[in-house]
Amino acid sequence: MYTEEVMKHFKKPKNMGKIKNPSGVGKVGNIVCGDVMWLYIKVGKRKDGKEIIKDVKWQTFGCVAALATSSVVSELAKGLTIDKALKLSNEEIVKKLGGLPPIKIHCSLLAVDALHEAIYDYLKRNNKKIPEELEKKHEKLKKGLAEIEERYKDFLKLEKKLTKQA
User: What pTM does this model have?
Assistant: First the structure.
């Protein structure tokens, strides 16, 4: 059974879509359930010069929980510094949603992982220092994504074709 908060984010998700010319893109998937997420960030600076995540958008191919967690992550990450965004955890996401069925907890991991991958992409594109923990996480996620891409190669070809038309 899903909480009222989960259903709210599922029925009216926040920040769904794609950012043109994103600062970073995170793409993750779960080989077991087949959920795939793309999360886009736009990074800017506050008046004090600190870099923050100014905008977040996402596209998710998945279940109710996957969509709801993507929505919540996008809301929580907006306005955070890179360091604070890297500290977002799946526990925070689950708590914000009022809980998830145990079998759906992995969906909250995907949403947080997608955010972290987008930050990794941003740091790499801009030749910025990548924290060691984030580098290790990226390597692990990269292996899982390779399996997803192989399994869903026909779907990904369609995605690429549709992206070019947009």
Answer: 0.85
